[in-house]
From TrEMBL:
GO terms for cellular component: cytoplasm. It comes from Nocardioides albidus. SUPFAM superfamilies: Phosphoglycerate mutase-like. It holds the Pfam family His_Phos_1. This is Histidine phosphatase family protein. Gene3D superfamilies: Phosphoglycerate mutase-like. It comes from the Bacteria.
Amino acid sequence: MRLLLLRHGQTTSNVAGALDTGTPGADLTELGRAQAEAAAAVLADRDIASIHCSTLVRTQQTAAPLAQRLGLRPTIHDGLREITAGDLEMRTDTASAHAYRHLIASWLLEGDLDARLPGGETAHDFLERYDAAIDEIRATTRGTALVVSHGAAIRSWVGLRGGDIPEHLHELAVEYLQNTGCIELTDDSGRGWEIVDWLSHPVGGHLLEDDTAADPTGRAPE
């Protein structure tokens, strides 16, 4: 099976630097909608058999252009939602963003899977729900599945489940995944996922980047 993990397009919360991890979440910006259209143009010829989104509207808005092109109806999975910010939800201050980013780093670099933010979830909690969603997708898809999910969630799941990750890719797991960045994995043998490609930048090209956005869920600790 081939799995394409696509981060959603830019949202108003990404621009504001808000830790927006709850449902339904913010809508896409104008740039985010352009990113979604560009991603659809690039991914339309990838023989995608199914499309899957989280319960947050930004993933569904990102998937919509491609779903329309391919005539597919996206399936919604609660398990694909973003790693919760807990008591820091919708905070925009530097300290909160730093704490969230360091949580992800503690999971991926230090192996501290019990770490959590106040009111948040551990890596064990996150993996339980995300693994369940991926297992369901795997059981119902033959061929290539597109999963539209979230920056921290994708980086963490790939970092923890991506098998023997080369050192430079492991650093990327902590570093960043921009809006509509895409990671490709395969598991043809059933022995575990292997990373085929890691595109940290928008699949539609660098002109769709926004380096001015604070974007706390897509970047590394500062």
